[in-house]
Design brief:
Alpha-Beta Plaits, 4-stranded antiparallel sheet, 3 helices
Length: about 130
C-alpha cells in the first residue's frame, strides 16, 4: 500500500440542486480530475417556504473535489466565479488539508497517459 507524498486539499462545494455540472466544469478548467457529489437538504434558512402548511427545505448538492494543493486556489476561484453566491448556483466552497491519500492514480501517471493518448500535454499547475 503506497501513501501519496504529495500535499492534497479537499475542496467542498455546496450548491443549489442542478449546479454540480457547473462546479465540475469550472474545477476541471483549472486542473481538477473529477469529484464526488451528494444530495443534501439545506437547514440554515429560518424563513423556509411552506406549501399547504408543509415546510419546503431547499435541495442542495455537495461536491467533494480532491486536488493537489498547488492548484487549489485556482480551482476554488474558478468555482466561485461560475457557481458562487452571486450566481444561480448560490454556492459556497471551502477546503480542508488532507494528511494522507491512498488509492489514487498518481497525477504524473495520469498526465503522461493523457499526452500519450491524444498527443497533448496539460500542465497540472495552470
Amino acid at each position: 500500500m503506497e501513501v501519496s507524498q504529495k500535499n492534497y486539499e479537499l475542496i467542498i462545494v455546496i450548491v443549489n440542486q442542478g449546479y454540480t455540472g457547473v462546479v465540475m466544469d469550472a474545477a476541471k478548467e483549472r486542473g481538477a480530475r473529477g469529484g464526488t457529489t451528494f444530495v443534501a437538504h439545506g437547514t440554515g434558512n429560518k424563513e423556509l417556504g411552506t406549501f399547504f402548511g408543509i415546510v419546503i427545505q431547499p435541495e442542495k448538492e455537495i461536491v467533494f473535489i480532491l486536488v493537489d494543493e498547488k492548484i487549489k486556489d485556482k480551482v476554488m476561484l474558478n468555482i466561485y466565479k461560475q457557481a458562487g453566491l452571486e450566481t444561480k448556483g448560490s454556492g459556497i466552497a471551502f477546503s480542508i488539508k488532507v494528511s494522507d491519500v491512498i488509492g489514487l492514480t498518481p497525477f504524473e501517471k495520469h498526465d503522461n497517459e493523457k499526452s500519450e493518448n491524444d498527443g497533448t500535454s496539460e500542465e497540472i499547475n495552470q
